[in-house]
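To whoever is on call:

I kicked off a structure prediction for a single chain this morning and the downstream step that reads the tokens threw a length-mismatch warning. I double-checked the sequence; it's 247 residues and nothing unusual in it as far as I can see. Pasting both halves so you can look.
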Amino acid sequence: MKFINTLGQYFMLMGKVFSRPEKAGIYYRRTMFEMEALGFNSIVITAIISVFIGAVITIQMAINLESPFIPPMMIGYTTRETMVLEFASTVTALILAGKVGSSIASEIGTMRITEQIDALEIMGVNSASYLILPKVVAAMVFFPLLTVLSILVGVVGGYLMCVFGGVCAPEDYLTGLYFDFRPYSITYTLLKMVVFAYIITSVSAFYGYNARGNSLEVGRASTKAVVISCIVILLMDLVMTQLMLLR
């Protein structure tokens, strides 16, 4: 019963969020600001994690594909496919759920308990749309770009392991990267990231917006936002993979 009540509150809040903006110019400026806060500030952590993931995947593939019957180029191929289909979108989304999600929940939760949201409502401002919609739009636009960055940096990390780690001949690795490339895989992972971006921002904003009490409740709301976001991301990852790849 509590789950149904929470779900109903979530959809009611989203109804307020996606209502027609009163002043489009203000929302545009806030969206640009949120792109910097949520997107640009996440580039470094995304790149660092992706380069190590790509390197580790390359090492693991080199170990597991060590057979005279398997061509060495398959190391590059499997590294590319693993990064494109799963790691660049899902793992990046889980990382951003912790970094961006907790930040959103804390920011909006603090505004709630300090009555700043109540002040916006008194002034006749749709606080849900004003605070949450720019975050959702900014994330849905910028997070797919982080996915592309993750793919590129990940395969570069694998190449560096071939050059400096000697796990595979660099020429074989590059041949594998170009082997049997399917553009639909990029479409699939970018669409997943758009959905994940919406989940991260909307769920985190929901728990922050409904925080009550003192600063301890803001911390609890942030923790709950990250946990629920990660669970929903993994669930949607399963659903979208079934719908988009098993056709």
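Update from on-call: the warning came from a stale cache, not from the record. Cleared it. Sanity check on the structure: The two ends are 35 Å apart (CA to CA).
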